[in-house]
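Record type: monomer structure entry
Structure origin: computed from sequence
Chain ID: A
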Amino acid sequence: MNHSRVIRPAMLDDAPVILDIFQQCDLFASTGYRQDNINLIDVMDWLESVTDKHPLLVLEEQGIVIAWCSVEAFYGLPAFDTACEISFYVLPNWQSQGIGTQLFRHLETHRTELGFTHLIAYVYSSNLNSQGFFKRQGFDEWGLLPNIAQNENITEDVYLLGRQF
């Protein structure tokens, strides 16, 4: 483990960098159709909705936030309480350096406290890097949502990837 890296709960002061990382990792940004409808207020709302079971974590390298992940409720019914949706965002110049894996291992190590038995990820079909990441973490394809993501003139399939613990 890299000792200059720290994983910690996100704080309200982290909202601007979380938004910046999200926008840099946005599928539509490279096509000129950035999701401008996600703004700082949305990120602040995300941060205010976190709980012990559904955290938003950041990873710092030498005090600089370079990645974040969230664990959110998968579905609003009690029967699904141990299933969580997971998201990872790593600054592009830090990708493929084990950052996402480090965040995932942290969640896996704390899964008893977090209370999940299943993790679900939604991944754009064109995001081959993310698909590869989740498969390396033991996720399988559980479904396909055809043309569900839409922005301007772009439509995108989304894979539903999951892992049971």
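Annotation 1: The chain is about 25% helix and 35% strand.
Annotation 2: Helices lie at 15-25, 40-48, 99-109, 111-114, 128-136.
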